[in-house]
Each structure stands twice: as structure tokens, then as C-alpha cells.
Amino acid sequence: MSLSLHRLFPLTAALVFALFGSVISVAGAESSPSNPVATQEPEKLALWSGRAPVGDGQFESGDTFITVHRPPAGKANGAAVVICPGGGYRGLVTGAEGHGIATWLNEHGIAGIVLEYRMPQGRSFVPLLDAQRALRTVRFNAAQWGIDPNRIGIIGFSAGGHLASTAGTHFDSGDPHAADHVQRVSCRPDFVILVYPVVTMGPLTHGGSKQNLLGPDPKPEMVKLFSNELQVTDQTPPMFLAHAKDDTVVPPDHSRMLHEALKAHQVATEYLELPSGGHGLNRYQGPMWDAWQARSLKWLAEQKMIPQDDAL
After folding, report:
1. pLDDT (tens digit per residue) in 52-73
2. d(CA 99, CA 96)
3. Residue 310 domain-assigned?
4. CB contact at 8 A, 98 and 104
5. CA distance 6 to 24
6. Which residues form the domain of 208?
7. Would you say residue 84 has pLDDT above 90?
8. At CA 252, angle to CA 165 and CA 259, rounded to 5?
9. What does the pLDDT read at residue 40?
10. Residue 82 lies in a domain
11. CATH code, domain with 8
12. What is the spatial distance between Cα 206 and Cα 132, in angstroms, rounded to a whole number?
């Protein structure tokens, strides 16, 4: 299903203020007389123990980190989301597209796990290996962290949206014989949320993201492999997409192509096309930013990933 914001959101000024005000209060949530239960302190964890894979059986000294933001125990609903910030595959916008998203998720009972994936520098599989490891790690620790292993998703923004859509189209059920027990666990996300994502490496791609991920002269088979609209199957998890109609940095055709591919394979999908906001949706604030958040929560409830009450 594809939605137009003009039909979905005839927002009044009062509602815009209420929504915007709620975002500000979420960002500053802490223990107080009016908010007696504070979110648990975030926990930063290394994923690779100092020996990180780069693909083709090769490794490097280094690591990838996740920061686990868990909602208060009494508010947690068991869902979790790995968060992939954008940055063109040359940096990470870990504020608004990372820890800010985790705070928002916590307010709705969802654990938010911010992934500081490695930059590829032409090593095309490095970010995907990190995202897969993050998903496996959350699932491996699900019982300890109060998470349902069947309600673990991934969200991504811009180039982080490319990574999230790559994780949603390139996954496995784990290696049951792996010496590392985390690698025995599935890395398939149960749902995917993409906000102004890079999706294709074809003619409409974002040039900087493509070069940083695939190098200056990628082989055609690599372009195809990382064009995620071409990698959808009937096993692809449900996806929610949001994109501004006037995004000139990453055109909305990225989301449209993926949405159509998902529909063709009868995978549950919803595309919210926003009338304005450009890339970054007015710098992560205002009615366009609020709109995708509100609708994505309702979509998660419709997919039975969170309770209806937590979508409000």
C-alpha cells in the first residue's frame, strides 16, 4: 500500500505543535516527579572482540560497536530495532539518525540498538557483515535483554537505509556448526523501516554512497548484488518506506522501486510519500519528520510487532 501525506495528514496547527512538542520532550526524557521511571542507561558493546571480518575469509584488527538503549522494564514490549545512521558510507550521523531514534523507540517500549558500522572504503561487504552481526547479537542476547527473538527489526536512513535494505535482502539462518555461538543465530530481520533510503546502485544511485561502498569502477555483478530492489524474494521481511517527494539528493524513485519489487513478491510493504522535506526531512524535525514516525509505529502494530497502545 502506498500513502500520500496529503490524504494521511490534514494536520492542524495544534496537532503539529503537540507532535513536535512530544519529540522535544522525548529527547530530554529523564527521571523527574512527572516522569518517575527513567530509561535504563545505554550499554556500549563491541561486536567482534577486536578481530573483524572484511570478507573472503580475511580479517582486520578493529571492531564494530553497538549501543543498546533499553526502555524501562515496565514499559518494554519485547520489540527491538537495530539502527543504521546515514552518512554516505563515509561517516555516521549518530545523533538524530542514531541515538535520537533510540530515544524515540524507547518511548514506545521498543529497544533501540545504535550500530556504528565500519566504513567500507571499497571493501563492499564490511558494513553488511557488521549489520548482520548486530542482528545476530541482539537475537543471541534476546532473553537476557528482555527481547522477543521474533520481533527484531532494522531501521536505516539514507546510506544507512541502503545498509538496512541490504540486511533485509541478504541474510542467512546462521551456521549451526560455528565455533562462535553468535554466528549460529539467524541474521534475518523480522521487519525493516527505511527513511529516505539509498536502495539502488544503478543509474539513479547516490554517487558518493556507491563509490564509497563499491569503489570507483565496480564490476556489474557487484552493482546488481547491492541494488536491493533486484534482490527481493518471497522470503524478504516486511518493509515500511518513507521518502520526500522533493528529495533531490536521493530521489524517491529509490523507495518506489523497492516498494514495487516487494509488492511483486507479495511481501508486506507500505510506502509513505511525503510532499516536502527534502533529504533529511527538514533537518529531522517538524510535521514531515513526525509523519513517518507516527505512521511507522501504526504499521508496526498492524504487523503485530508492537502492541496497539505503543503505536500512540
Report:
1. 999 999 999 999 999 999 999 8
2. 7
3. no
4. no
5. 25
6. 2-26+38-305
7. yes
8. 50
9. 79
10. yes
11. 3.40.50.1820
12. 23
Distance from C-alpha of 200 to C-alpha of 263, rounded to nearest angstrom? 17
Residue-wise pLDDT for 41-54, tens only, equals 999 999 999 999 99
Residue 31 resides in a domain: no
Confidence of residue 16 (pLDDT cuts 50, 70, 90): very low
SS3 of residue 55 by DSSP: strand
Task: Find all residues with CB under 8 Å of 189, minimum gap 6, and list them.
Answer: 82, 135, 152, 153, 154, 164, 167, 168, 171, 237
Beta bridge partners of 55: 58
The whole model's pTM is what?
0.88
Total of domains in the chain: 1
Residue with cell 538496512: 164
**pLDDT tens sequence across 246-286:** 999 999 999 999 999 999 999 999 999 999 999 999 999 99
Place of cell 524515540: 104
On whether residue 312 sits in a domain, the answer given is no
How far apart CA 206 and CA 253 sit, in angstroms, is: 12
